[in-house]
Amino acid sequence: MELELTYSCNYACNYCYNPLNREFRSELNSDTWCNVIDEAIELGVEHLSFTGGEPLLKADKLFKCLEHLRAKDQRIATRLVTNGSLISDELTKRLKQLGLDIVQYSLHFDRINRALSRLGALDVDRTISEYIEKVNTLKGHGLYVVGVVVLSSNYLNFVSKAIDEVLKRSEIDLMWVEQVFLAGHAMKNSGMIPSQERIARIISELKEIKEHYPSRLLIREHAYIQGVVPLTRGTPKEAVVTPVGDVYRFHSTIGRPEHFCGNVTRQGLKGAWLTLIRAYSRGV
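Below the sequence we write its predicted structure tokens.
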């Protein structure tokens, strides 16, 4: 289950899957998120991901959620999804103390692309070195680190080099290469989606790198996804709670009324979960 703690973000990635037409209602406070976590425990949820936006912009809220969770449950696996810009030694130490298990840290070049337009220079090596330094900070405190790279046309020419350098020079547990997910901001920025020929060429390069790091490089080769993936019959295995408490099946359904399962401030997570179960039972 993904808990989106905030819409706020200090980056503006053109491939972000977060919704464009979100409602700017008041975001849930820490106490409400703790109530959501209590219900998630009762429902038997096995993992919780804290996302955004950029969740570290709301570090106090994140800390309270983790502290509350670990006071009641040591079983649930926890993951932080971050752009990494606010990672520091002190913050990493605190996250580990609060029982965080996994950090999913995106390797971003968008900031450099903006600098390129202003300065006429692209310092790829510096970005890779900064990323590696922060990965090793996370690893130094015993966290499991998953790096994520989205294959955007903005930086496709040097993504293979970046991944090879990170795997070679850091202790990262896994590098995950993902294609653009056609939802949210990505839907209006289709120009940054590479052609299938370019994707195939990069994937071929990455497979050569994978031969040297077979257990540390995961390449998602699926085609771009547009629309909603039909549910298989059964029970819910995931859900997303937005910053304002709305519950949806997963990110590609956010904002679609037909896939709205409820709001945690009105029905509670359990009530929304029952709606989700009905959707799965119908396989729609």
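The longest helix spans residues 124-140.
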